[in-house]
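> tool_call: predict_assembly(chains=two)
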Amino acid sequence: NAGVTQTPKFQVLKTGQSMTLQCAQDMNHNSMYWYRQDPGMGLRLIYYSASEGTTDKGEVPNGYNVSRLNKREFSLRLESAAPSQTSVYFCAGRGPRGRNTEAFFGQGTRLTVV
Amino acid sequence: GQQLNQSPQSMFIQEGEDVSMNCTSSSIFNTWLWYKQDPGEGPVLLIALYKAGELTSNGRLTAQFGITRKDSFLNISASIPSDVGIYFCAGPSGGSNYKLTFGKGTLLTVNP
């Protein structure tokens, strides 16, 4: 099992460009998450999907959209990238039982917006 | 939104020393999770706590679920250089078991 796989690992965008960060898991997770990590800010929840077909906003959803394409895949889209979105983005999966089970993280996507 | 407050923000210790860090919330948590993040990697779960008062160990790590359900503690005994990293507390927040919220982390540096 590969676990939680994020692509790309690194990306540089110009302000105003759009892109989609991909996340796929093969651990049969019901719930999936997107976090961003900035120095001194910890992990902040952008969006999450409790189960296939549902998505909900986290703490910092502005400027992002998500799609739970199927049970395995949860993508994060930046429609018009801004320098403030320079960050490390982590995808995570949780479940299948959902309740109180640990979240497994991908390796991260390091995004720079210039 | 619901916040998890971790302290200290950073620690510099000598190899062999014991370490304590804690996490507090203004709201009750039903689960406390402690994660470690190595440089360039995603966080990895160390210990999960599910009941108030619970004390759980994982090797040299011990974590406790506070009786008030608003705090948790993580202790590391006899630290070694590979303990270096960022330690996060986390838990389901906002009345949802699915909304997993993290604290800002404690950065641990261990001097050999």
